[in-house]
């Protein structure tokens, strides 16, 4: 009897040990799966950032090509400046006063050369700021596999496209609770850019729409834009002086409206990071001396 008791105890110990080991194994498996998912998410985010960087580098290369062409013209004019004036004076074609006037004009070319360099520096700085903003937005929103959110840079302007499937119920302009969370993450990043202004644009597909006080897609797109603006202002504290709301109806599509997928893509709300045109025009103004 004692022998049977000992065998039972040993068997029970083995079973308990196997059970605990199985639980530990499953827990470790879950940790590995979670780490693999996080790694995949990071890879997708990195891929999106690399695409944005490629677009910025392409725009920058085009601008640099234009600047280099202008610099070549400036260099050519500088090299021929003194020789041209001397030749004209020797031929008595122009007076000394006229020669001095031409000389001053040529000196202005040097100032314009410096101005071109300043513009180039500002454009490079703006490209860097846009890339940092895009990376911060993608980092705040998180899983960029979600096709309902798209952040991109096009011709130096940052766009945040959010599908209406995420933001609103069909035919409604009331923002969903899940969309409010997404808008909160966007607002958290944008509030750290106090000198930037924004425009919230509502877009629809080309299906005719009329409901209650809403006459057509113009009304629907405007109401959806203002609904998003109110959330950004009242719930997340964004400065209303820095935000504009606009409705574009169905007239600025990004996909053909002849398929359900195309229509879904066109039904979106876009947050546009507006270019700082006042700062650009300040560069164009003549310096007071």
Summarize the structure.
The chain is an alpha+beta fold.
Classify the fold: give the CATH topology of the domain at 146-289: 60s Ribosomal Protein L30, Chain: A
What is the helix tally?
7
The pLDDT mean sits at: 77
Series of secondary-structure elements, N-terminal to C-terminal: HHEEHHEHEHEH
Radius of gyration: 31 Å
Which CATH architecture of the domain at 146-289 is right? 2-Layer Sandwich
Which spans have pLDDT < 50 for at least 5 consecutive residues?
none
Topology:
Layout: H1 2-90, H2 96-141, E1 149-154, E2 157-163, H3 164-167, H4 177-190, E3 198-203, H5 217-235, E4 243-247, H6 260-266, E5 268-273, H7 277-284
Parallel strand pairs: 3-4
Antiparallel strand pairs: 1-2, 2-5, 3-5
How does this model look, in words?
- The chain is an alpha+beta fold and 289 residues long.
- The chain has helices at 2-90, 96-141, 164-167, 177-190, 217-235, 260-266, 277-284; strands at 149-154, 157-163, 198-203, 243-247, 268-273.
- It has a domain at 146-289: 60s Ribosomal Protein L30, Chain: A.
- It has seven helices and five strands; from the N terminus they run H-H-E-E-H-H-E-H-E-H-E-H.
- Strands 1-2-5-3-4 form a five-stranded mixed beta sheet.
- It is extended and about 90 Å long.
- The model has no long low-confidence stretch (mean pLDDT 77).
Task: For this entry, give a set of tags.
5 strands; five-stranded mixed β-sheet; 289 residues; 60s Ribosomal Protein L30, Chain: A
């Amino acid at each position: 009897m004692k022998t049977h008791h000992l065998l039972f105890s040993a068997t029970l110990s083995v079973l308990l040990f196997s059970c605990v080991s199985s639980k530990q194994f499953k827990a470790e498996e879950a940790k590995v799966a979670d780490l693999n998912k996080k790694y995949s998410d990071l890879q997708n985010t990195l891929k999106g950032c690399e695409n944005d960087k490629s677009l910025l580098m392409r725009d920058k290369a085009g601008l640099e090509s234009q600047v280099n062409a202008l610099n070549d013209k400036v260099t050519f004019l500088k090299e021929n400046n003194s020789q041209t004036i001397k030749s004209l004076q020797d031929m008595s074609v122009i007076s000394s006063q006229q020669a001095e006037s031409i000389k001053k004009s040529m000196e202005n070319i040097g100032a314009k050369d410096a101005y071109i360099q300043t513009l180039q520096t500002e454009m490079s700085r703006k490209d860097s700021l846009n890339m940092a903003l895009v990376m911060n937005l993608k980092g705040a929103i998180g899983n960029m596999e979600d096709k309902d959110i798209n952040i991109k840079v096009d011709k130096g302007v940052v766009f945040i496209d959010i599908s209406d499937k995420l933001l609103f119920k069909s035919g409604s302009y009331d923002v969903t609770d899940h969309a409010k969370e997404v808008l909160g993450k966007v607002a958290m990043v944008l509030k750290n850019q106090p000198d930037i202004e924004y425009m919230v644009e509502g877009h629809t597909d080309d299906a005719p729409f009329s409901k209650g006080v809403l006459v057509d897609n113009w009304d629907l797109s405007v109401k959806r834009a203002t609904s998003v603006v109110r959330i950004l202002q009242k719930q997340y504290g964004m400065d209303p002086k820095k935000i504009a709301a606009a409705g574009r109806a169905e007239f600025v599509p990004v996909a053909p409206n002849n398929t359900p997928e195309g229509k879904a893509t066109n039904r979106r709300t876009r947050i546009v990071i507006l270019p700082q045109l006042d700062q650009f025009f300040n560069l164009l103004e003549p310096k007071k001396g």
